Amino acid sequence: MRKKESGQALIILIFAIALSITILTGVTLTAVTLAKNTRLTEDSQVAYYAAESGVEYGLMRLIRNPGSCNSPALNDNLTIDTYSITVSYNLVGSVCTVSVTSFSGTVLKKFQVQATIANSKVTYCCFKELP
């Protein structure tokens, strides 16, 4: 009878090892996925604030020089950490549209704000994030 018992112990040991490996793999995959999602969330927040900074830069430029929106194909390229920010201006009548794109890796954020220029005074409205 002892031979049968030692065979059962080996089968139980193999089953326990397989179960442990399965559980460990599941926990590891969950941890890796959680880390990736956390990193993506952090990158998205930084890209959001970088794009928002680009909007503030564009508005400050208009406030300091209201005629700066008149230049055709005017673009400002900024860099914050690893984020590349493009600020573009488009004048239609007295409304200057400032469009901002913030990009790094797989994260892309776009914003747009409209500024009205009248009597060398700049007022802005319609700040929105674009899809």
Summed up, the domain count is 1
Instruction: Please tell me what the overall shape is.
Output: rod-shaped
Cα-to-Cα separation, first versus last residue: 72 Å
Compute the number of strand runs.
5
Radius of gyration: 28 Å
**What low-confidence regions span 5 or more consecutive residues with pLDDT below 50?**
none
The neighbouring-strand order within the major sheet is 1-2-3-4-5
Can you say what the CATH homologous superfamily is? GSPII I/J protein-like
| CATH structural architecture | 2-Layer Sandwich
Could you characterize what this model shows?
Helices cover 48% and strands 37% of the residues. It is of the alpha+beta class and 131 residues long. Strands 1-2-3-4-5 form a 5-stranded antiparallel beta sheet, with helices on one face. Strand 2 (83-92) and strand 3 form a beta hairpin. The N and C termini lie far apart (72 Å).
Features:
alpha+beta; Pantoate--beta-alanine Ligase, Chain: A,domain 2; five-stranded antiparallel β-sheet
Summarize the structure.
The chain is of the alpha+beta class. It has 1 helix and 5 strands, in the order H-E-E-E-E-E. The model has no long low-confidence stretch (mean pLDDT 87).
Question: Topology, pairings included?
Answer:
Layout: H1 2-64, E1 75-80, E2 83-92, E3 95-104, E4 107-118, E5 121-130
